[in-house]
Structure formats: structure tokens, C-alpha cells
Amino acid sequence: MKNLRFFVVLSLVCFVCFMACGDSGKVSEMEKKAADAESKVSELEKKVAELEKAAAPIGKTLENVLAKGYIQAGVNGDLFGFGKPDEKGVWQGLDVDTARAIAAAVFGDAEKVKYTPLTAKTRFTALQSGEIDVLTRNCTVTLSRDTDLGLDFAQVNYYDGQGFLVPKKLGLKSAKELDGASVCVLPGTTTELNLADYFRANGMKMNPVVIENTAELAKTFFAGRCDCLTSDASQLAGTRAVAPNPQDYIILPEIISKEPLAPAVRHGDNQWKDIVNWSVLAMIEAEELGITSENVDDMLKSEDPKIMRFLGVTEGNGKALGLDEKWAYNIVKQVGNYGEVFERNVGVNTPLGIERGLNALWTKGGLMYSPDFK
Amino acid sequence: MGTPPPATVPFYNDPKKRSILFQLLTLLMVGLLAFYLISNTLANVEKQSIATGFGFLEKEAAFEIGESALSYSAADTYGRALVVGFLNTLIVSLVGIIITVILGTLIGIARLSSNWLVSKLAAAYIEVFQDIPVLLQLFFWYAFFYNVLPSPRQAIHPIMGVFLSNRGLVFAVPETHPVYKYMGISVIVACVVVYFLRRWARQRQARTGQPFPIFRASLALVVGLPLATWAAGGAPTAMNVPVLKGFNFIGGANISPEFTALLLGLIFYTAAFVAEVVRAGIQSVSKGQTEAAKSLGLRPSQVLNLVILPQALRVIIPPMTSQMLNLTKNSSLAVAIGYPDFVSVAGTTINQTGQAIEGVALMMIVYLTLSLLTSAFMNWYNKKMALVER
Predict the structure, then answer these.
(1) A229: alpha, beta or left, given left = phi > 0 and alpha = psi -120 to 50?
(2) Which member of B74, B257, B354 has the closest CB to residue A124?
(3) Does A120 lie at the interface with B, CB-CB under 8 angstroms?
(4) Is there a contact between A211 and B338 if contact means CB atoms under 8 Å apart?
(5) How far apart are the C-alpha atoms of B177 and B237, rounded to whole Å?
(6) Cα–Cα distance list, B172 to A271, A312, B75, B83, B241 (Å)
(7) DSSP labels, A24-69
(8) Is residue B98 domain-resident?
């Protein structure tokens, strides 16, 4: 058996040698073969180029996205109001709508998104490795993530802060009364660090119960394993909304951190970052300009130069981003402005019941502010 | 008339040279693959401007860990946090292995019992626990603890100083006193003395045929010596009794539901496999051996210790080793139910620092080292137990 294999290898080697040093009489034949080989090589090169595209090299995300025909977005998957499929299996949420807005800008079709549910621990690796094109997963902007992790953050799409959810029957009024408590927390989040900082700063002790899966963590908390659950206030509202008895739980008044949540892309792909960034900004600007998904068609006839530039009636913005001139129109038409997206997913009329607060427009006392679209 | 050997054999027909050639080729290929993987990774990491190196171990971890054998706070370094995680893995593996071997052996023997009910119960146990994925068993035990047990304020209080609630089992422990340190030392001393005593007793029996009541003597030494130390140290009886204060019990010692759930899951799962290993080992010793030993006039305990076990162990030890390794490796499922084992702490570290490659490398090194150590120990024991052929 071994013998046979050896001779096969050997004969192959001999054959190659023979081909390489064929005698002069066969030169024309050899040339023909060389030409053939060349055409094969160019074919292979083409294939390699295609493969490279599929492998999402850094700096070519847009090309890659256009080639495959959809955006692969990393989302939460378990967080009501931000990223979770509804009972029909349709993805819903503020982060999901952000991804849809990017798809509307790139393809003119908000539905050209595929979603990858990610845990807090796996999300950055998924982005770094090219598994996803954009991370819209209630992710806090921090300096070390921006630098050490090789990420770039786009415009903040939700200003959040960390709070505590506690059972009403404990009779707590403030987070300062939590000394000695067991705290349910997700691993690998800024939440975990803020929690430790807060208890250290206030000279209190706690016992963390760290469970990776959001649903499992919530179950553990509702069963009474922990005295409180800590997370971003928006997530607490989402978790409470799915509690067996939502009215049995309250969110304590203390907000112990700043959590600006923003979509993230790989560092070094400036064009792609611009597209993600301005897609979020377009929703904010649309709200400020008073353009909604309902009146956007009427607005096309507007004489306001700002609106004309925004909707691509006056051309220029699309070309600058490498997109269709209708990109912002498509976002507003198919996804809506920021106010619509907010109210639809997390606003006061949803089970989450969150006020606009910091997420109101700057003109209404919030932080949502967009540079001009010119 | 023998044919003379050919003057020259082509190198590819010389089995020795050929095997060297193939080995060199294999080595070359493995080397190239490793080089490609490493250089490619480094290039990619640099291209994406991700930091590399183990410098992060010195940085402040800034996260808390639920339970720890060392003193640890969020102000300590990532390095110390990882050590805490490593010790947690070690504790659960070690305790798990010891109980698993005992429980598995008992069930394995029960499986062979001539009592129909006992044998069938053992069989049912083995089938049920070895056929359910261990992760599901972990979820089951964990849910059992947090759903069935009451909150600390309604804790079950069976005897003085013991409280059982969904925060774990809290029990009174003796107040710290210098005498306990000496008691620990005296246990070690007793063990050493027992070791030499056994050797002496065996040699004497071989020489003179006189048996020595080694079991009773050992027991007396291991229990008696620490007790004597305790009495000599003033016999302190002060206890650190847990008290319900605020959210939880203060004082005493605590065994968390996460630890217990993980331990139970691992033990019940692995013990089913160990039971089968033990059964196979015992059945591999032919019945004639038992009968021959009995006809020599040995007592049943001697039959087991001197004839059956030495032969059965040869069959049992190698697969038993792999079950121990399985238990250690399965302990990494702790992350699912919130026990802060090495994988859990390393995972958090990876996420906070972004040093995924370094973190995963550390995890691999830790599990590889643990597994190799277990294997080395069991191989040594196997060699000791192996039948010496004369």
C-alpha cells in the first residue's frame, strides 16, 4: 500500500520534470500549452478575486455588501425593543431598524438585511472577523473598544444609562440600599465594570451572579436568585416587559453610568463608516426637518433647499457617499425618521414605555443632533 | 543456495530511509501550516489595529467575581482574576472527580448485584444519566435550586446554624483559631505515619506471616491525632454562625447554588460512565479467580482486595482516566449557569480587553495542563497496578 502511494507520487514528480524539460521539437506545442495555462491562470485570478470579495477584506465592506446583495447585521436577538424577532419571526427593534436604514441607503430596499444574533461576548469578534458587516447591538461606545478592539463607532442611536431592576416587595427606594445584595449581570459588558465601580465607590459589597445568556439571566432573576438585575435602563424596561408579573418590579431612580449606544464597524473602512454614520444621522435630520414616512412623498415637492438637498432632489449627497441620490428618501420612506422609529419600538405606547428623555431632539431638550446635510 | 543480496537498494525501497523521508515531509507540512496560521493571524491582527501581547494581565480587572478561594476584589489585576477562575475550575474538578469515582464505583458494583431490584435501579440510573446531555442536566439542577428553594428570609433551617435557600447552603464554621492550622498539619503527619506503618506491616506479614490490624490503626491515627491536637490547643468551641442581615447571610461558610448545580450535574453524568467502566472491569476477571481464591481460604474482603481488584483495575484505570478528563473539561460548561470558572473569567477578560487570541491561548494551556497532569498521574498509577509478569 505504502509502496503504491510512493510510486504514484514519484511518477507525478517525474511527469512534471519531463514536461518542464521537453525537447526543442515540441516548443510550439509547449507555447500553446503555455497560452492555455495563462488563460487558466487569469480565470483562477478572477475566482480568487471573487473569493477575496466574499472574505470581506478590510476597506471593501461596501463592495462586498453590494456583491452579495444584503447586509449582514449583528444584533442582540433577545432584547425586546432593540433586537428580537416577533412572534411571526420578523425582526423588530430600534437596532434592527438602524440596520434596515443602512440597507435602505445602500440597496434602496430596507429588507435586504440578514441578522446574526450575538451575545455580549461574541459580538466584537464577529465584527473583527468579518462575519458581520455592521454591529447594531445596543453597544456602548468606549475608548478602549474604539482603539484596542479595532472598531469604529458611528453616530449614537440611543443614549442610555445603567440602572437597577428590583422586586417591589423588597421595598427599596435607592440603589444605595443595595449593600450585600446578589446582583444578576451579563458578562463581558461595560455594565459589569460600572457595577463593580459603583459598589466600590459607595463602599458597598455585592455578590455578582454572571450568566451569559440574556434569557437565562432574566429567568434566574425572576426566580429570585438575585436581589436585583442591573443593565442599561432601556434593557431593564425590555426585561421587565417580559416578566411574569411586570408590575411586581421597579427600576430604581439611580442611573449610574453614561451608555451611548452606537453601531460599530471595522476600523479603517472609512467609506463604510460614513454610510453607517450618515444613515443614522439621516433619521435624526428627517425628524428635525419634519419629514416622516407618511409625508416624504409630498416633501419631494418642497422648495426648502435643506429638504431638497436631504431628499436628493438637489443632487450631490448620494454621489459623495457612493450611494444612490435617493438614499435618504429611501431611509425615511421605508424605515421612518428617528422619532417614528423610537416610538414604534421603545416609546411610551409600547410595553417598554420609555420617554424620549435624552433621546429627544436637541431642539426639545435631548441630545439628538445632526450636522447639516450639505 | 541463497541469492546474494543486491549490491545497492534504491533509497525509496529501503524501509528505514523511506520512513525517515515520510516523517521529514510530515514535519515540514505541519511546520508550514503552523507558520502560515501564525503569520496570517499576526498580520490580520496588525491590519485591524488590535492590540496584542500579555500586558493586559497587569491591568486592573475592575470586575467582581462571585466566589473565590483567594481574596479578590475588582481592584485586583486580570492576572489574579484568572488565577481565581483557575482555582474555581480546580476545586470543582477535584471534588467532582473524587465523588464521581466513589459514586460510580458503588453504582457499578450495584449493577452487578444479585439483588434484582438493586441491579435494575442501577441500570436505570446509568441509562438515564448517560443519555441526557450534560448541559441540560446543569440547567435542570440550577433551575431546581432557584425555583424550589425559598428566598433567604424564608430559608429552610433544619438544624442549628445551617440555612438552605436559593442563595445556597450556608452553615456555621468554627471561629478562626491558631489550633486549626496545627490540626491540618497533624492530619498530614498522620497520613505520612500511616504510609510507613502500612509498609512495615506488609513487610512483617511477608516475613513472619503475622497480620497487623492496619485499617483500625490507620483510622485511629488519622482521626485521633488531630483530635489530640485540638484538645491540647485548648479545645476551642467558638462557632462563626451565619446571621441573616439585609439581603443575605453574613458569616459562616457558603456553598453557592451555581457550584452545587455544576457539581451535581458533572457528578451524576460522569458517574454513569464510571459505573459502566467499573462493571466492565469486574466482569473481565473470570469467575474461576474468585472460586480459586475462596478455596484457598481467603475471606471475601481479601478475595476482593487481593485477587479481583488488582486484576480489574488494569482494565478500569485507562478508561477511568478519560472519564476524569471529561469531567474536568465539561466543567467549562459552568459559564451557562453562572459559576465563575476559568472559562467564564477568561471570557469576561477577553471581552473587556479584546485580547481574544491571548485569552483563548490561556484557556487552551490551562485545560491542556490539567489534562496532562491527570493523565500523568493516572499513568503512573496504572504502571504501579499493572500485572508484573514473571
Answers:
(1) beta
(2) B354
(3) yes
(4) yes
(5) 10
(6) 64, 74, 29, 27, 4
(7) GGGHHHHHHHHHHHHHHHHHHHHHHHHHHHHT--TT-HHHHHHHHT
(8) yes
Helices (H) then strands (E): counts for chain B: 12, 7
Q: Kindly report the pTM of this predicted structure.
A: 0.74
Q: Which residues are A229's β-sheet partners?
A: A165, A184
Decide: helix, strand or coil at residue B156: strand
Rounded distance, CA A28 to CA A217, Å?
74
| The domain over range A162-257 is classified in CATH as 3.40.190.10 | yes
Intervals of CATH 3.40.190.10 along chain A: 61-159+261-364, 162-257
Question: How far from the centroid of its chain's Cα atoms is residue B198's Cα?
Answer: 27
CATH code for the domain of B298: 1.10.3720.10
Backbone dihedral region for residue A150 (phi beyond 0: left; psi -120 to 50: alpha; all else: beta): left
Task: Tell me what ipTM this predicted complex has.
Answer: 0.74
Q: Test B12 with A6 for CB contact under 8 angstroms.
A: yes
- Check CB contact of A266 with chain B, cutoff 8 Å: yes
CB-CB under 8 Å, B146 with A225: yes
Cβ(A196)–Cβ(B64) under 8 Å? yes
Residue with cell 528505514: B16
Cα angle for residues B84, B89, B95 (degrees, 5° grid): 120
CA B20, B21, B23, B27 torsion-angle sign: positive
What CA–CA distance (Å, rounded) separates A194 from B135? Answer: 30
* Residue B314 near residue B386, CB atoms below 8 Å: yes
pLDDT over 50 (residue A142): yes
Rg from Cα positions in chain B: 28
Q: Is A89 exposed, middle or buried (0-12, 13-18, 19+ CB in 10 A)?
A: exposed
Is B107:B119 a contact under the CB 8 Å cutoff? no
Instruction: Return the residue in B49, B141, B249 with the most chain A beta carbons within 10 A, the one to mutate for interface testing.
Output: B49
Residue B247 within any structural domain of the chain: no
Number of alpha carbons in the 13 Å side-chain half-sphere of residue A346 = 33
Neighbours of A305 (CB within 10 A): 11
CB-based contact B336 A200, cutoff 8 Å: no
CA distance A323 to A12: 52
pLDDT over threshold 90, residue A60? no
Helix (H) or strand (E) run with residue B165 in it: strand B162-165
Number of structural domains chain B divides into: 1
Residue range A61-159+261-364 forms a domain whose CATH class is alpha beta
How far does the CA of residue A313 sit from the closest CA of chain B (Å)? 38
pLDDT tens series, chain B, 390 aa? 456 666 677 877 888 888 899 999 999 999 999 999 988 888 877 776 677 788 888 888 888 888 888 888 888 999 999 999 999 999 999 999 999 999 999 999 899 888 899 999 999 999 999 999 999 999 999 998 888 888 888 888 888 878 888 888 888 888 888 888 888 899 999 999 999 998 998 888 888 888 888 888 889 988 888 888 888 888 887 888 888 877 878 878 888 899 999 999 999 999 999 999 999 998 999 889 989 999 999 888 888 888 888 888 888 998 999 999 999 999 999 988 989 999 999 988 888 887 888 899 999 999 999 999 999 998 898 888 777 665
Structural contact between residues B341 and B318, judged by C-beta atoms closer than 8 angstroms: no
pLDDT bin (cut points 50, 70, 90) of residue A17 is very low
Whether B62 and A180 lie within 8 Å, measured CB to CB: no
User: Amino acid identity, residue B283?
Assistant: Q
Find the domain containing B87 and state its range. 78-161+255-385
Q: Which residues of A touch B136 (CB under 8 A)?
A: none
Helix (H, G, I), strand (E, B) or coil at A259: strand
Kindly write down the DSSP assignment for every residue of A272-299, as one continuous string: HHHHHHHHHHHHHHHHHHT--TTTHHHH
